[in-house]
Description:
This protein is α+β, with helices and mostly antiparallel strands. The protein has 2 domains: 3-51 and 281-311, no CATH class; 56-269, Bacterial polysaccharide co-polymerase-like (2-Layer Sandwich). It is built from 10 helices and 8 strands. The two termini are 36 Å apart. It comes from Rheinheimera salexigens.
Amino acid sequence: MSQQQQQVQPSIVADDEIDLRELFSVIWQGKWLIIAVTAVFAVAAVFYALSLPNIYKSEALLAPVTEDSGMKIPGQLGGLAALAGVNLGGGGGDKTSLALEILKSREFIGRFIQQHDLFVPIMAAKGWNRGTNSLVIDNDIYNSEKQQWVREVKAPFLPKPSLLETHEAFMKLLNVSQDKETGMVKLSVEHLSPFIAKEWVTWLVQAINNEMRERELNEAQNSITYLTSQLENTNVADIRTMLFSLIEEQTKTVMLANVRAEYVLKTVDPAVAAEKKSKPARALIVIIATMLGGLLATFVLLLRHFSANRKS
């Protein structure tokens, strides 16, 4: 190493030490500014956190209902059913996946919102009164006395929220997940009222089971009608035997659909009204805001100092 390089290296180290000391010196000199800004952020965060309403979460644990027909379908019979467009069932996993996709679909949720008239609880509620167990409605959005929507919005929106707009808001409250290993399904709803959240989860479980039951019934009845017509048009003994077997399977599907209340998803742990809020995390909001205020004040202080040094 040359003599010139040896002289430069200590100089760089010395400059670093001077800069570090200068950094702490600037922070120490501006400590009151940092404290003041941090305090402002902390107080503002407290007021903001306290202004947020409590959100309650209700969750149900569901198990997929497995199909057990009690008899094995021969390959020849299965092939004939496929050609005829007849579903012999047995795909419990596929049926559950279909049910979950339907549950999250716009068409299903839209019908659910309309059936139970959930526009006001979703779009106009701003709080919950524990004493009266009633929702606090935002008068700037919905006039409860006149039962009229009064919110001010720009086109293409209207004072009364559309079904599409309400669906988007509802999907932010709904969460559906399935464990890949166990197949168990968790369905949860968050709302200002713990009792409404619990009620909606219960309704959703009933609705999706009824939806899948109706679909299976319609499909099975259409299959029986088709198979019966084909049975009348053939005299071949083997084909008639297969058609009778297919009709038997579809009749079994109709029987199960009419008997089993929880057709696709069976409730393992039903939804309950939560006693404790799930959010907001007010303490965390205050801590993050306070730290952000301190860091921001420190950054501005250092930026002003080094900007002034460059100009001088």
